[in-house]
Amino acid sequence: MKIQSLITALLLYPVLSFAQPGAKGLDVNNKAPDFSARNQNGKLIKLSAELKNGPVVIVFYRGQWCPYCNRQLTALQDSLPFIKEKGATLIAISPEKPENVAKTIEKTKASYPVLFDEGLNIMKSYDVAYAVDSSTIDRYLKFGIDFNEANGSNGATLPVPTVYIIDQKGVIIFKHFDTDYKKRVSVREILSHL
To answer: What is the value of pTM for the model shown?
Structure first.
């Protein structure tokens, strides 16, 4: 399985490694848009309610088919006690439909809320969503990744992998946004901003 993930990663290396048009992400000091969505257990998660308990770390990820996303989400799960020790809540958000969110949970053992962004409302409000171009869609199909199948009505739209930290006042105090999906923020850096 690890070899298959490595091969997939190497094959997809040139794909989506360039800037995605349109998405810029919200900036530090912006007010974070409130949102609500259901987690992997069907529970409604609302950002404003979570902020009453402390800061919130939001992670936008592409899907269970992305080995970079799975690696990042697994590292966050492994470090969840340290995040909680800082009084923070961790929430991951994906365009993938619930059955594929379940695959993410299986692969990463995530115990924190993982949300299906139905209608892409959250990704759009945080300005991280972009439409995948047709040539990239065709390349991914050759590797068995069908965005319409993975994302359902969300179609071929993905988020730029992004991490935000939002303070209890609802203000973004940290942002890691990189259109190169291979470049992910370390857990250490996240913890240093909590």
So the answer is: 0.88
